[in-house]
Amino acid sequence: MSLSLTVTRAVASRRARTRNYARNYWPFVIPAGIVVAAIIVLPWAFTLFMSVHEWRIGSDLEFVGLANYRHMLTDERFLWSIVRTLYFTVLATLLPMVLGIAAAVCFHRRFPLRGLARTIFIMPMMATPVAVALVWTMMFHPQLGVLNYLLTSAGLPPFAWSYSAATVIPTLVMVETWQWTPLVMLIVLGGLASLPEEPYEAARLDGASAWQMFRHISLPLVWPHIIVALVIRAIDAIKAFDTIFVISNGGPGTASETMNIYLYLQAFSYYNMGYASAIVVVFFVLILMVSLVLFSVRQKSA
Prior knowledge:
Number of helices: 12
Helix content: over 70%
Number of strands: 2
CATH superfamily of the largest domain: MetI-like
Structural class: mainly alpha
CATH class of the largest domain: Mainly Alpha
CATH architecture of the largest domain: Orthogonal Bundle
Order of helices and strands: HEEHHHHHHHHHHH
CATH topology of the largest domain: MetI-like fold
Distance between the termini: 51 Å
Number of domains: 2
Strand order of the largest sheet: 1-2
Radius of gyration: 26 Å
């Protein structure tokens, strides 16, 4: 009987502590819940509401159901914006990843003024994207830009850069690569710095080359950090707006009009808020799908 009574009292005491914890917990949770609802839930609910309505600024709100979503299936400009978004995302992810990993390997080695070189290398990442885009816009100018001046000084023909439909997206990718390769480098460099020295010492005793040590030791061990950098870079690239908007504004024509640019034009140039809201919903689903795929790869590689 004494053991049963002790167990009963222990259970009752635990339940009382749980109730007290819940009473003390909710006053801290409720303000956070209100903030989350105000800045995330309510705007998304309003966006979903607007996506099933037709509303242009100055006109009445009209319920149209899924008409905005059906219109996307026949809107060639929207469909091409998806293609351009994926094209831009792939290039703006792979190039910084390759260059960032190479830079991390270089900066992981000891050489004179390594700290200064690292600091200079990460400086582009510290600038705001709009400021970076403005500087590159002046550099891309066909007549007054410094890039074409350097090309002609070297005896090469001038380049169209962001003023040609064929080269505008690679040009924008070049700007993104210049600014965000340091981010990949920092993430991968952190992974390299945390690796133990014993496998490398054993590999050197066996006569392994630098490439063999990177291929069979560094790369497998630092792979989780590479996947983290890949996830961050891909999500950031698919949402890119400011660089594209400042440099090309979706042009020339619609050659660099990604989904972000297209929905911005629909909302704030054409004032078609209902259709723009539907594009936002589809864009969110696309980002969610890409994120889930990348996080799935991250979990499998962990």
